[in-house]
Amino acid sequence: MSRGAPAAQQLLLDADGVLQTNPPGWVDHLRGQVEQARGQEFVDELWAAEHDAMRGRRRFVDVLREVTERWGIGDRVDELLPHWHRVEAQAGTVAVVRELREAGVPRHLVTNQNDHRAAYMRDGLGYAELFEQLFVSCELGLTKSDPGFFAEVARRLGADPGTLLLVDDSEQYVASARSAGLRGEVWCAEDGTDALRRLLAHHGLLPPQG
């Protein structure tokens, strides 16, 4: 933050790659559901079909059933659904979020998710307690690639977009937020929490780092 510039007032934090990660072998497990030579084709089709669920147009269970039936493995839906609950919260990021909570800084999760995984993240992972609000693509009807997602978040918070800082591991989503008038910084869990704290301090959400 440049000298004399106003500080950010609220944090918008991404989920995947920032607050949480998939365990090793997560995608390989999906590839392994079909013959090896076509594993990536199956995954690509599943990702493409999931877009409607991420925008709240369809339930993810229906999307998964439709895709698996096309591949002749429709009987595996109940077995595969829990796979989307296999996610690991990053202890370092969680610790920083708790530090912000103790300092009274408003914190909100902003994430592209289908309804099935979003419900688990909210309750099963305790994010509803960790954050003041969760803004999820399947509930807003928009994904973070659309600047309208961030404009809607600002509207619901009743906040000047320039007072909101997005921290996300995607340059595309940071650019989307900036085009909606928000601040944005690229950071991922692999960068380490010291780097995260420096970013937050730069925008006035944490005290200057010594």
Automatic annotation (TrEMBL):
Signal peptide extent: none
Keyword DNA damage (UniProt): no
GO molecular function, one term: hydrolase activity
Gene3D superfamilies the record matches: HAD superfamily/HAD-like
Keyword annotations from UniProtKB, A to Z: Hydrolase
Domain of life: Bacteria
SUPFAM superfamilies, sorted: HAD-like
Pfam families reported for this sequence: Hydrolase (PF00702)
Family matches, as InterPro entries: HAD-like_sf (IPR036412), HAD-SF_hydro_IA (IPR006439), HAD_sf (IPR023214)
Designated name of the protein: Putative hydrolase of the HAD superfamily
Species this protein is from: Nocardioides perillae
